[in-house]
Fold each of these.
Amino acid sequence: MSEHDGDGAAEVSTATTTESGEAAEAAIPELVIISGMSGAGRSTAAKCLEDLGWFVVDNLPPALIPTMVELGARSQGNVARIAVVVDVRGRRFFDNLRESLADLDAKQVTRRIVFLESSDDALVRRFESVRRPHPLQGDGRIVDGIAAERDLLRELRGDADLVIDTSSLNVHELRAKMDAQFAGEEEPELRATVMSFGFKYGLPVDADLVVDMRFLPNPHWVPELRPFNGRNEEVSNYVFNQPGAKEFLDQYTELLQLIAAGYRREGKRYVTVAVGCTGGKHRSVATSEKLAARLSAAGVETVVVHRDMGRE
């Protein structure tokens, strides 16, 4: 192991020694840092990566992340992908995360941050169901602990490469999302999630871009279309035969291609495009399907999620 520098972070070794004594270049492992709100599904996300063959370390103090990467680099390729779970259970260690991330960036370690998010209501229900206190609530209420944690994690959430809102997801749906992002043998340049939603159910908190399709007539008010959803041909034809619908799809696709090119230049690998209408059943679903098809045709690996379809 290399000597520690003054800030306590170990340098990442990039070389090993062969049997003949010659230095050989070591492959630095790929790194994913899993963090987010307590109760939002960090353990499930970590277990999913473990099932995909990642070497997973739970509740690792941030100051030790560079050391873990160094050990992986010295494993002669046996540990090519490392996932570490970092959360507020680390208490005083958590303040060292920013320092460790800067250290990894200086050593050109490929790393991504996955942030698990959830609404206050969902988190309270989860803590109450297991009858456990929030790690930061102290003598206060669960909501006090959640508020303190949000404040602590605010900057990290802003730096995350992938934000997953688990408010309305069960364990299987969260695993499906992780599989969609990490199961591929080769990492694509950019992965997109196109999510339809209903404004009356609230904005998706993990959206990078939001599209409002309420400028088009609502098929809900057409009696023969009301029972169907935007995946049905009749509804899709109705939506895209409206004035401005096709033009909007064409021009927004071009805009997304410009944005995607910028994301690639900035090293951002994931984007969530949220497409909304009133109830998340007709216009947003039809548009999401069309938009996802356009992005896929342009070479962007795309997943479609219909968050609110079927809720009415």
Amino acid sequence: MTVITNVEALVLDGRVEYGKRLDDGEMAGPRYASLIKVSTDAGITGYADVDSHPWIVQALVNAPTQIPEFCAGLRDAVVGQSVWNRTALWERMYRHSWYHGRRGPALHAMSGIDLAVWDIAGRLAGRPIHDLLGGARRDRVLAYASTLFRETPEEMRKAARSYLDRGFRAIKFGWGAWGADPARDRSLLAAVRDEVGPDVHLMVDGHLPGDLSAVRRILDGLAEFGLQWVEEPLPADRPGDLAALGRTTNVRVATGEQLGGVGEFEELLATEGVSVVQPDLSRCGGFTAIQTIAPLALARGALVVPHAWTSQLLTAASLHVNAWLPGPVFQEYNASSAPLASTLATGLELVDGHVLLPPGPGLGITVDENVVEAHRIL
């Protein structure tokens, strides 16, 4: 039996501010990163990056016991536990967080530990994670370049062309200049569609202004651009309104990246309308939770597209889920060249617009320890 000997929540500093334009024209993502490190008595270490507030995640992992097994730090919950009893381990973490968690950052910290433990179990078994989930249906997944909106139509054209040159056949622009002026939004999208032609998949991400009726009119006006989906045109904590939009517009509505645990997805899917569900493995509960969340969404007729916009470590985790899911599938691929997004882990290969499933055990990729140490501040 392999047991967990330690859990660490590291804080990394990429030293590039969010949204800053990089030398290659890309836009930087979050400056800081939350990295979970799980150690075992077998000498195998697992990592996961968590798309949450790094200092809060660290506090949830390191917190001392307040009330045994009801209000305690996650390290106390998992040290000494077997990596093979992953469902029981998840339930134990959840129980230890009853008084301060159940949703939000506690679920995020749990998710990171869960992802790292699955990686360890896969490497111990000599099997990739998609095997542990139930097997792969494909060996590659269509990737979409995930990036921020630029300020002008000319900049949008240039960015779109750069992704085509890199081999992408799908692009998602989000936030940045989007959402303040519907007329400007249309001009930005029109420039991209004209540049890439009709066969490239386009997606949009970001809140839209106005009440429900106003947002519905905006979405109807975007239908001509042939979008795969519009992601969170309203805040995620308005699931009923998001579903209503999906039922009454010609554009598919996507959401789910901010949700944690099965219960929030059940709430989202209680009424039909959301047709693209986007669980973030580092927030929703990890691989253990996705085994319930994905079938729940698929049973409602929704497309499941895992959200993955931190580093290639999370990209790889999502890739294994995409390999296991029935089609069609899309792999979010952070196009930023910021240090932590692009260099924290190695082993993923982009070929002809698809990310290849790595052949090795566990996640099948390698965390660069030198990058971790160079950027670690806590």
Amino acid sequence: MQRICVIGGSRYFGKLLVQRLLAAGHRVTVINRGSVPPPPGAEHLVVDRDDEAALVAALGSRAFDVVVDQVCYTPVQARAAVRAFAGRTRRYVMTSTIEVYDPATAALPAAAPHTPVPEERVDPAAWPVRTDLPWDDAAYRDAHYGEGKRQAESVLTRDGRFAFASVRSAHVLGGGAREFTGRLAYYTDRLVRGAEIDVFARELPTVFIHYEELADLLLWAATATAFTGPLNACSDGLLDVRGLAAVLAAEAGREPVYRTVAPGEPAGPFSFDRYYAMSNTRAKELGFVFSRTTGWLPGAAAESITASTTPAA
């Protein structure tokens, strides 16, 4: 049994992580703003993690074996977390993102074309940090999501007051209506309606992970391994948006209709005209076993189609 603190953890794979931690017999404390209660059995601290003084007060004398931070988006939040949890935990695991590798959002070292990207492509120990940027502005933060994650990783890596690991997640799918981002629904809705799907003239592949697999990996990262540094998390197998749409179309019984966007025009959420699909070799070498995207994607497609065609209550 370990004492685990989960910051966020109120929905989707974060909520599932809390449920699996509890089922494994761990003592779990969930920190969120109170909009959604945690699963039964978890301690609940209602506090805004952006209010550092309130967070420290809410923590009181608590200490943890591991903190899993699901909602760290900026270097400012990371620095506050360091101050709040230094001396309270031996290990800190942050959920990060494939978007740290997006060459459209940062000047990154040249990579071999069409070769899955390893963790060292973005080294948080060397990444510059700018806490003076307007990270408290939601619109700015959303527009600079990948950069915020890069800088948050950098702060937590460099501080050194606890062991730090970041899990760089692929695009998360599955769960039907629980998949709250609406990215898969973009495609299922268009397929069901016969509407056009916006794509690039030359689509490049990316990587995905099922939300249950990501919860399993975070459970493993928090309780069953001691790795530090960044770790890519993605199911086996690359897939471009046309391949994704083909799986959805097979489940929906419809033929996709594509519209090629003009140069400079945006396409759908999983359309990419630049390559930054991740390699999961490091996680495998550490002992985690991934599923294949093609194994679970038809089920996720069926869930999404059901959610898309079910009338709202």
